[in-house]
Each structure stands twice: as structure tokens, then as C-alpha cells.
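Morning. Coffee machine broken again, so started the prediction first thing and wrote up yesterday's gels while waiting. Chain of 308 residues, entered below exactly as on the submission form.
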Amino acid sequence: MVPSGSLTPSIDPAGFCLPAGTALRYERSADALRSLVPSYAVLDSDPTIFKGPHSWVLPGWPQLWIGLTTGKVTVQTRKRQPNVLGTAMLFGGTSCAMPTTSQGGVTVVIDLTPAGWARWFNRPADGLRDQIVPLEQLWSMERTGDLVARLHASDQGEAVKSVLDEFLLSTLPPPHHGEAFLTEIVMKVGESGSATAAETAVALGVSSDTLLRVTKRYFGYPMKVLTRRTRFLRVISEMLMTVEPVDHGVTPPGYHNVSHFLRDAGEFLGMTPRRFLALQMPYLRAVLRARTMVIGAPLPLLDSVAKP
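Came back before lunch.
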């Protein structure tokens, strides 16, 4: 398996608390890419050792998934149809936790922000939300094949960061005309306050119709869904990483009461928090810890609200 860890200094992979038979690397992208591609992950497992339960992927921004394994990987989206992943796949923005199965091997994950979507994909994000499609549907076969070939030729470990930095910088389109505005929206989403979409539009100096159009085009969802999703994931990710028992009778931060939290759980998990947290998910928990150690937040859509 690949060596776990990161090129970021002072990261001890022992803090990831990985289950036996698994490996994980997290890396920061190059400075010039950071606002577009906040992080890379390399996931690996040996199915002869790791015989644990299936894992899960939490909802969030779009991702590129590159499979460097011959083992079958399946992911079940909100559409309830299991997707057997090909070699190079695009995950649109997602709004519900997704169970995954894997037969081992290396997968490389490239996280995208809405600004990154605007740069590399000339497609409305809401048309691909909660969907997983072959990357060749949006990029040419030549570009997709080049990315896969470079990763296959690498050591699939420490060299992945330099391979991805070089490839993405070489294919980097010019800045999108609305990039600064997309960043403003990301910050507003991260605040997850009680402001309505109309109030947020006023604060941003645009009409409600404009805000709706932009968020659906580049984020995949209207503002209300984006803020609810961020608020919920901030809470549930902390619950997943804590070593202390979770008191399900306490109202989490940002919520009016427990019932309010349970409604969001039904929307973004498809089950109650109690049931979800009772699942055996050692690898997901390790992924959240590792990204927090390396990047500062457990999920890309929480980067804007990460504690300094």
C-alpha cells in the first residue's frame, strides 16, 4: 500500500487512526490552485486485511475520482441506483450521504470548489447534482487519458501532489469573470446564519433572482440548501470525529431544537444521526481527521469556516 501521511510538515499519520489494512494521504494543492482545488486525497486498502464494513462519502462540493485499481468500486447516490465507478469519474455536488463499497486498491480524489467548477466545466452544476458521470463527458478523452496515465506512471503516493499540480496548472483556464462573486457566496454559505436567501442577496448587492441563478449554475443548489447543508455537516463531522459519546438530547449549535436537527439529518443523511453514528465507519472517520490535520477542516465546504 502507499505510505500514509502528507508532504505538509509535522503531520503524523498515526493521528489519522486508520484501521488496519488501509492507507491515506492528504495534500494541499499548489498555491495558485488553492481557491479552485483545495485538496487532494489518495485512498488505499488491502482487502485481504481490511475486511471492515462499507464506507460512506458525505455530501459536498464536486470531486474528480481517479481509480488506479482493477477492483470494483460502487457508490450509491440519492438516486438510489448503485454506480459502478469507471477509471475517471466526476461527482457533481451532492446532497445526501452515499454508501460505498470497494475491493481495495488506490483511488485519487481531487476536490473542487464552485470557482474550480466555473474554470474547468462549462456545464450548469445543477444539471449534474447528485450524479456521478464519466469525466470524458465533460473533458476530452485525450485530457482525461493524460491525467490517468500520469497518475498510473507515478508512485501513486508522495508523487501524486506534484503530478496533479503540474497537470492542473497546465490545463488551467483563464479566470472566470465571476470568480470573486463566487468566493463571496462561499463565505456567506459558510456563515450559515439565520439570514434568508433574500437577505443574503441584499447583503451581496444583487437581486434574489440573480443569486438563485448563480448558485444553481455554479453551486448546484439554491442558497437555502447550501447553508442548511453546511450547517449540518459542520455538526455531524464533529460528531463523527469526537471520542466522547454523543448526547442526542442536546440541541447542536446553529439549531433551534433537536427536531430541527433531525429534519436536516433526514435530508442529508437519509436517516437519524443516532443511526448513522452507530454505523461502523472507521475509514470515514479517519478521512475526516486526516483532512482536518492537513487542511484545517474535515470537508472542503467547511474550509471557509475552519478555525484558524
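The longest helix spans residues 223-241. Going to sketch it on the whiteboard this afternoon.
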